[in-house]
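Tutorial sheet, problem 5. The four components below are modelled jointly, 460 residues in total.
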Amino acid sequence: MLTAQRLGDAELSSSLHNAKNAAEESILAASAAIRKLAPGETLYIEGELAISCFQVVSGVVKEYNTLIDGRRQITDFYSLGNIFGISEADEYLHTAEAVTNCVVRIFPRDTYLQYALASREQSQKIVTDLMTRLHRAEERAIMLGRMNARQRVATFLQRLSEDQGHPQKIRISMSRQDIADHLGLTIETVCRVLTELKKTGYIDMDGARILSIKEPERMENIACVGSTML
Amino acid sequence: MLTAQRLGDAELSSSLHNAKNAAEESILAASAAIRKLAPGETLYIEGELAISCFQVVSGVVKEYNTLIDGRRQITDFYSLGNIFGISEADEYLHTAEAVTNCVVRIFPRDTYLQYALASREQSQKIVTDLMTRLHRAEERAIMLGRMNARQRVATFLQRLSEDQGHPQKIRISMSRQDIADHLGLTIETVCRVLTELKKTGYIDMDGARILSIKEPERMENIACVGSTML
DNA sequence: CGCCGCCTTGACTCCCTTCAATGCGAGTGG
DNA sequence: CCACTCGCATTGAAGGGAGTCAAGGCGGCG
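Model answer (structure tokens):
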């Protein structure tokens, strides 16, 4: 869901190597700058004036809030094609930081918004995309509010798998701490659950960052993704 | 936040007794039907074909998902002026049910979407509104993922207070079960926290449904609303 | 080799859930 | 007017799952 699946039409149309309507696309492309980031580098910090928005060209970016007690809540991980950094406010509502080495395209916020509202079709796309994001945010709320640690981790691994096109071996780009901060758990709990999933034969691991899901159907049962069915 | 505060421009412009641009407004009003609901009546059920969207004229409506194990996650309570029932999908993603006696206006979904995208200004409003909702959903995710029971209840009470314009006495329209289902807690925990807040002098209660916050500042410290500050 | 950051594992604690019983107020019928 | 009942709310006791604190383990890199 993080990349391909989540790419709403809005992103697709302005996605890399995918510009059907090059005329409209060029409006954006013309004003796009490129920036490279090393792991840990920040694109923007919560509260800063939001002058730009971004699109991932390569790598993974995390977006998070820092709570007063120092804990972090990672709201999302962005990868290839994802656009981020826009909100209803004039300030950034999150902090964005590179997880891996990254390349991002940078658009002036105003330019992007003008482009987004330029035509009825564009507006429609943006609206649909926002509704999808809203839906996803609500699903995440259900996950955080209702699922236990095992379900959260299993769901997370399934999403990772989807993002990468269900390969044999899944690459986990982010640290255990990042996973914990995303799932509302502690790093220790994430580790313990992974160990348990390994012992019970759900997954295999090749080092800490390479993983394979052995029995996707059984995982499905744990994760209950889209489990809000009646 | 549930009513006045949350009313994005999109809602305000089409809100009751507040139609500045009556011409545009009439497009909607002309196609609006009215329906009255008793507590517990449903407007729509998750998975149904989404043919209408709704606006609260009076009363409170809850919107929730039912999980496979029968638990419910209430995503939101809607009151005066709030519009709900639209999504990116052709099916409703939630179930909507009256909490109190309610009156709602009903719009055909297509009519509403046409209206929403009719002009650049309208689109802008819808986009802004959706971004605000997204932001709120993310805050709720943080609440569910990171706050303990006391913080969640305190935050909920503050929101209720805001909605009602910070009166001396707050009316709690929904049941303890509804509150629990909204906050990701059990009914017992909600009760215990309320009792504790009462004993420690934060609140007073006059029956189960009337409440007053005695020391808003101290409550603020518990709740940490918008606690995502650096 | 040895350091350093990240990951893993263990023991203990605590908050919330679960299960169960009781309280309470509104509506009903005797 | 009172007894009864029914739904909702409250309180208590016990258990479990995740957090906390602490101690290694592992791998990359100088």
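Marking note: DSSP finds eight helices and eleven strands in chain B. Full credit if you identified this.
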